[in-house]
Write a structure and sequence with these properties.
This protein is an alpha/beta fold. It folds into two domains: 1-78 and 149-228, Rossmann fold (3-Layer(aba) Sandwich); 85-148, no CATH class. The chain has ten helices and ten strands. It has helices at residues 41-49, 71-76, 94-99, 109-115, 117-121, 132-145, 162-177, 189-195, 213-217, 220-226, and strands at 3-12, 15-25, 30-34, 53-61, 64-65, 79-82, 150-154, 182-186, 198-203, 206-212. The strands form two sheets. A six-stranded mixed β-sheet has the order 6-7-8-3-9-10, sandwiched between helices. The protein has a four-stranded antiparallel β-sheet with strand order 2-1-4-5, with helices on one face. α7 (162-177) runs parallel beside α8. It is globular, with a radius of gyration of 17 Å. It starts with a strand and ends with a helix. The model has no long low-confidence stretch (mean pLDDT 94). The structure holds adenosine-5'-triphosphate. Adenosine-5'-triphosphate (ATP) binds at residues 12, 17, 35, 37-43. Residues 3-228 form the ABC transporter domain. InterPro entries: AAA+_ATPase (IPR003593), ABC_transporter-like_ATP-bd (IPR003439), ABC_transporter-like_CS (IPR017871), BCAA_Transport_ATP-bd_LivF (IPR052156), P-loop_NTPase (IPR027417). Belongs to the ABC transporter superfamily.
Amino acid sequence: MSLVLEDLRAGYGDIPVLHGVSLEVREGEVVALLGRNGAGKTTLIKAAMGLVRTFSGRVRYGGVDLTPLPPFRRALKGLGYVPDDRRIFPELTVRENLLVAARPGPWNLEKVYDLLPRLREIQHRRGGLLSGGEQQMLTIARTLMTNPRLLLLDEPTEGLAPLLVEEIAHLVRSLKGEGMPILLAEQNLRFTGAVADRAYVLETGEVRLEGRMADLLEREEVAALLSL
Ligand code: ATP
């Protein structure tokens, strides 16, 4: 079950942002999507989920062509999307935020609480009262409740203090341990270095570099492609 993007051109209105991007996320892999602000990371994650306009190219998952399918059908095929703007329900409790997303499968309230014990502690707190880190945990947990087979994670460490970034890294490694493949858009090179197996570096909507994360960290071009 690989997620494969083939020569994808996608964007907003009539304006393409991705100019022919190809990549693959294989079974059990954590793959990072690196690039500076505006490189197209969020657009690529959204294009995989069907949330932006696709002009040409293909998105396949497990050999099935998802390109013509709307986002909810891609979710039913196994893609789980974690947006960067979190979008939790502020009036609902943590528990209710999780339950509204629930679909049958191995991930249920207990399993999610076991993975993220902090959420069990604050399960009766309203979403609007959570800290940034707690909101990020809840956003990921809510997507897990939909029982996806692959996660699309958009900038999970954005705006988080270093200690919380560590917690998210721990969470990503635990999910990898559970066999969950993850495509991760990120600017934080240290974080991705700690969790990703492979990475693609985007610049202006094209893949400039790709390879094993450990190898990419050795290459000077990577720092240059990520600097402002
Ligand atoms: P960031 O870290 O800032 O989110 P990114 O690598 O995720 O960066 P994208 O958000 O994918 O980059 O943006 C890529 C390009 O698409 C940018 O030039 C941006 O201005 C443009 N863009 C993003 N969202 C829209 C939109 N809703 N309508 C039109 N253009 C957009």
